[in-house]
């Protein structure tokens, strides 16, 4: 009779639950565990860290796989994009972004982080660490990209900081050396480049929040990170304009 084999099989299933059969199936680095809807399965235990430029170079190796990348996130009018200065992409080869959430709580967390990138100190772009899935899906409309990266989680974000070299632009974050100034309280060691017939003045909106900077002497220097929150030029006479640049200090660098 075949009763004994059947009983043995039933006992085996009771002792070794069926979900253990998937423990070693596709669980290594680069495995997908991704559903067709774009969400990442809870079964994902190890997420490989992949250089963004490696994904750009060999995209087909990473289609539909869960990866972690560090890149620059740009928020545009109709879409978001990932990029890296080490591998500049042409307009046709851009990698667009879609935000994917498995529940309302996760969606709220993603939305809050993306809203932060729109704050003045970020200026619509940020250096981010994201976990997601690269899709072989293009878009050819007002928003244009060759591939799409479905972002499941934003693990870290920070403003894109540019070394100051004499020019300032609104909505941009800079790193620069400053020193004490008897007039404005603080001045840039590298003077702001002047345009003929235009007088420029930098106003620090929150200098009082940094007593150590307010007490700097003319011969003392300190490096800071700051954002240009306003840049306005007003005509004073027929051949004279005044430029006022309002800057917010984000931090002091050791």
Comma- or semicolon-separated keywords:
elongated, 13 strands, five-stranded mixed β-barrel, 254 residues, mainly beta, six-stranded mixed β-sheet, 38% strand, disordered N terminus
Short description:
The chain is mainly beta and 254 residues long. It is elongated, with a radius of gyration of 26 Å.
Topology (SSEs and partners):
Elements: H1 3-15, H2 52-57, E1 66-75, E2 80-83, E3 95-99, H3 104-117, E4 125-135, E5 139-140, E6 144-145, E7 147-159, E8 161-163, E9 173-179, E10 187-188, E11 198-204, H4 211-214, E12 221-237, E13 240-253
Parallel strand pairs: 3-7, 8-9, 11-13
Antiparallel strand pairs: 1-2, 1-4, 2-3, 4-7, 5-6, 9-10, 9-12, 12-13
Structural commentary:
The protein is mainly beta. It has helices spanning 3-15, 52-57, 104-117, 211-214; strands at residues 66-75, 80-83, 95-99, 125-135, 139-140, 144-145, 147-159, 161-163, 173-179, 187-188, 198-204, 221-237, 240-253. Strands 8, 9, 10, 11, 12 and 13 form a 6-stranded mixed beta sheet that branches. Strands 1-2-3-7-4 form a 5-stranded mixed barrel. It is 15% helix and 38% strand. It starts with a helix and ends with a strand. The chain is elongated and about 60 Å long.
